[in-house]
Every structure is written in structure tokens, then in C-alpha cells.
Amino acid sequence: MKGFIWFAASAFALAATQSAAADMGVFNPARFSEHVKTLGSDAYEGRGVNTPAEQKTIDYIVGQFKAAGLQPGGDLVDGKRKWTQDVPLLQSDHASTPKLTLNLGNGQTLNLTQGEEIAVRAPTNGQTTVNLASVPLLFVGYGVNAPERNWDDFKGQDVKGKLLVVLVNDPDFEGGEGDFGGKAMTYYGRWTYKYEEAARRGAAGVLVVHETKPASYGWNTVKNSNTNTMFDIVRDNAAAEHTAFESWIQRPLAEQIFAASGLNFDQAKAQARTRAFQPIPLKAKLSARIQANSRTITSRNVAGLLPGKTHPDETLIYTAHWDHLGIGKPDANGDNIYNGALDNATGIAQLIEQARAFAKGPRPDRSVLFLAVTAEEKGLLGSEYYATHPLYPVGKTVGVLNTDGGSIYGPSKNFTISGTAKLALLDMLIAEGKKQGRYYSPDPHPEYGSFYRSDHFSFAKVGVPAISYNDGNDMVDGGVARGEALQAAYNEKQYHQPDDEWSPTWNFTGMAEDTNLLHKLGERLANSREWPNWSQDSEFRATRDQTASERPAGSDGERG
Ligand SMILES: [Zn+2]
To answer: Which residue, of 161, 253, 282, 302, has the greatest Cβ tally within 10 A?
Structure first.
């Protein structure tokens, strides 16, 4: 009922402001709604990788690409392109519920419940049986080794055979200023970094302490993302990148572990914020027995191509991930389908409609590739695979425009990109936005570490200028207060939960405007001789410059 009143009120406000609103161009909100409703329906079972829903999802996207008038742009087989690119992945599932016993070292022993106090990932280091017998725990603060910032949480301690207890985010998050970008999350703050560093050092495993603020999401998200099927791209030496035991624990359990060692968790955390921090041995020892089924499977990226008129060897790429979490643990209402309507049926809807608009319009000079990538939710794997096994050379890829999520609450006056990257692509986006009467706001939540959390990051790592576009928080109807409240409510109640479902109250007008903005930017890029680059001080600049000789001489653009 409440939802209905809200919808009626906002629809009314919209009608009143529509004349002043930004331009939707050729885009029709109803079409976006239809894609999201379909792909986010229970029939698509949450679009899990390597489930029956994968084929169904791929069929839908290929069908839409065909109808739009694209050509197959995927793997080249016998001189012909397929609609898809094969992505070989290692898949690992728990064969049974992990048995986890924690001896606190004060005479007390706890049996831990998977998904409750702890969430243990199925191993992706190549092992199918993991037996840990009374392995000691070692608190290593934020688990960061950053020589360029003169920061080392390990201080030369041998962590081999130990379980590392680490904090999420980076050392200056709590204080708000320091050597790690203040509130903004650096890559050192990502849990993926913590796992990688532990593997590099030969630790037995990792327990990341979950806290909602520095993680930017609640325990439900951790539980849902970590207790189901795990994937990785097939690696030459998986054990060098993953330990056998990758897990998260809830903060109250961490407090209990520290208290049993005569320590206070908050005090230990405060020490971890300083350069002088030394690893703290804990009295607790963990025993674990994990049985996993693991195998190599093949998932697929979907690739639709619009060949360029005069420079078909130069490619602009629009990306969005098609996968979500699939079927998982039921929520309190017994719903076990993680529909992923916003995350990321909306991104695919934008990709499809973008493809239709380009195919219907005048043929651009450069080729445009529409790439729906797999396994984003499993660690940006489909995009990592493409970026390291590109269908079209990365040196001649003009840029990547990614959408992960989209506007569902009505138009916004502003827009943003994930993270604080500096690149000419962003300058061009801002200029196009201005023409639409919209303004750019820097990522309002750099502490979420969004730059490392979607597929544009895979392309940035190989030097391709890449952004993830996000709708703004300054709503035409309700301003920033309403925009922030809606986002906070979504993060708490829907993000990576079964309730991320299409709703008749969702308003796709803003999504049509956003897609039009990205269309104008794409048209400019696809019809120019420009090669927008990263800013001089960007960590991705040097990688991009390594491929400069592949591009026409003297054409690499500077950031304006
Ligand atoms: Zn997503």
C-alpha cells in the first residue's frame, strides 16, 4: 500500500517536470522495463553461471542482439564468428556442510555454523579436501603490504601454516584521512586483495572480520556470496593465488576470539590503524573439514558486433554482466531465487537497447561491440577472461562503457562513475552530460571501493580506458535526500538478496535518459579519430602507453 502511494505521487511529480527533464532520445522506458521484468523473473532462476538458466539467459540476449541487427562477434570458428566466447572456469561447490570447530584457548570450544558466525568459501586453490587440525590464528590488522606507502602489517612475521584474521577496508578508513585515500577504498581494502596477499605468503587461510560500514554491505550479502558455488578462471598455479581456506566471520565472533586471548577487539583495531602495528598471535585454534566437488566448466560471454564503416579494426565496447547469484539459501520468507533484477538485468537491458539504437542509426566509422559478460558476481571473471583473451585487440579498443545497475526510481539531475579514476573518457562524458542539462558528481561513496567491483576494472588492468556509468543521487523528484535514502534501503534490503526483484513501481525514465547519454558519448567515440587516454598520474597509464604503437601515430589523447 505504501509503495502504491509513493508510486502515484512520483508519477504525478514526473509529469509535471518532464518538460524540463533530460533527453531520452530514441529510448523508450517501457522496453527497459520489459527486459528487466523478463530477465529478473523467477523463470530465469537468478541467472546462475553454469545452471540451466545460463542457456536461457544467453538465448534471450542473442535473440535480442539478432533482432537488433547485430552480427555475431564471438569466437572465430572455421572462419565464422559465433555469438558467444567460451570462458573456461574452475567451479567448486561444498559437497557437504563444512565442519568447523574453534578452540578459543580458554577452555571453551565452539562448533561454528556455516552461514551464521562464519562463511567459508568452497576452495578454489585446486584442493577438494581441506583438513585443518588446530591451526593457530594470527591477527594481521588490515593485512596490507604497501611498500610505496611505507606500510607493512606483516613486519616480516612468518605466516606460513597460520590462519590470518584481517580487517576489511584499508587502514585509514576509520580515521577518514591518511595514506590510503582517506574514506576512499584502495585496492588494499578489497577482500580479494587480502586473499591474494595471504596466498602469496603461504598462509593456511584467511578470516575476514565482517563489519557493515567498512565492508559497505551487511552480513546477508557476505553469507549469500560466499556459501554458494565458487568460480575462478582456470589458472596455471591456483595455489599461488588462493589459500585453501577463504572465509569471513561476524564481528561478535571476532570479539569473542580476542576476549578469550585477554584482548579487546576495538583496541587491537585501533593499533591496526598505525604504521607501528605488529601482528598479534591469538590463542584460538581452528579445526576444519571441507569436502568440495570441483571441476572445469565452460561458461560464455555473449558478443554482438556492429562492424565499423571506415575503421572496422578499431573497437568501442559496451559491457554489462548477465549473471547473478542463481538459487541460494532461502530468506526469511522462504524465497531462494536471487533474481538480480537491478543487479544486473538493468545493465543487460541497457546493453540491448544501446545495441538496437546503434544498429538502427547511421553506421559508425569504428566497430561497436556489445559484450554481455559472465561470472561478474564470481570475481569479474568473464571480463577478466575477455581482457586477457581479447576477441579484438585491446590496443585498438577505444574504450569500455560498462553498466552495472541502473536508474529505477526516476530521473536524476546528476550522474557519476564508479571510483575516482581520471581519464579523458570521463571528461567527454561530463561534456555530453552538460549538453543534456545534467551535471557530474564524483562517486559519492568512494569508500565502497566500487572501482574494483565491476567489469570495467578488468579492462583498466590491461590499460583500456574504461568506466562504469552510474545514475545520480540528486533526484529530479526529491533531490539527494530521497536518492540517498533509496540507495541505502536497496543496499540493506535487496542488494545480493532474493528481494532484488522487478517491481511495477520501478520508473525507467531515468534509465532511458542515462542510456541516451551513453549513446551520445558512444557516437562521438565511434565516429572520431580520438584515442582518449588515462591521466598522466593514473596507475593504468603506463600499461595503455605500451600499446601506443598499435594506434595511428600521434593520436593518443591527453586528458583535457
Ligand atoms: Zn553487478
So the answer is: 302
Reported confidence tier of residue 446, pLDDT bands at 50, 70, 90? confident
Our separate counts of H helices and E strands in the chain read: 15, 23
Mention every residue, 6+ apart, whose C-beta is less than 8 A from residue 146.
152, 179, 180, 188
CA of 70 to the centre of ligand 1 (A): 24
Cβ–Cβ under 8 Å, residues 401 and 318:
yes
CA of 381 to the centre of ligand 1 (A): 12
DSSP-assigned letters across all residues of 81-133: E-SEEEEEEEEEEESSPPEEEEE-SSS-EEEEPBTTTEEEPPP-SS-SEEEEE
- Where do we find the cell 597460520? 162
Residues 345 and 35 sit within 8 Å (Cβ to Cβ): yes
Q: Which residues contact 15 (CB under 8 A, 6 or more apart)?
A: none
Residue 302: closest CA among 70, 81, 76, 58: 58
| Contacts of 400 by beta carbon, 8 Å cutoff, 6+ apart | 317, 318, 319, 455, 456, 459, 464, 465, 466, 467
Rounded distance from Cα 255 to ligand 1 centre (Å): 32
**Contact criterion met (CB below 8 Å) for 138 and 124:** no
Alpha carbon distance 322, 166 (integer Å): 32
Distance set, CA 244 to CA 45, 55, 139, 191, 196 (Å) = 30, 31, 18, 15, 12
What is the average pLDDT value for the chain, to the nearest integer?
Answer: 92
Decide: helix, strand or coil at residue 232. strand
CA distances to 170, 410, 510 from 9, in Å: 42, 12, 17
* Per-residue pLDDT at 78: 97
Strands annotated E in 379-464: 397-403, 414-417, 439-440
Angle at 367 between CA 395 and CA 432, to 5 degrees: 90
Near ion ligand 1, which residues have CB within 5 Å?
343-344, 404
Measured in whole angstroms, how far is the alpha carbon of residue 171 from the centre of its chain? 22
**Residues in CB range of 481: below 8 A, 6 or more apart:** none
Residue 437 grid cell: 542539462
Residue 491: its pLDDT value, please? 86
Q: 236: which 3 cell numbers? A: 596455471
Amino acid type, 343: D
Residue 506 CA, ligand 1 centroid: distance in Å: 18
Give kind and range of the element (H or E) at residue 207. strand 205-210
d(CA 545, ligand 1 centre) in Å: 29
8 Å CB contact between 508 and 408: yes
- Rounded to two decimals, what is the model's pTM? 0.83
- Taking the centre of ligand 1 as the mean of its atom positions, its distance from the CA of residue 349, in whole angstroms, is 13
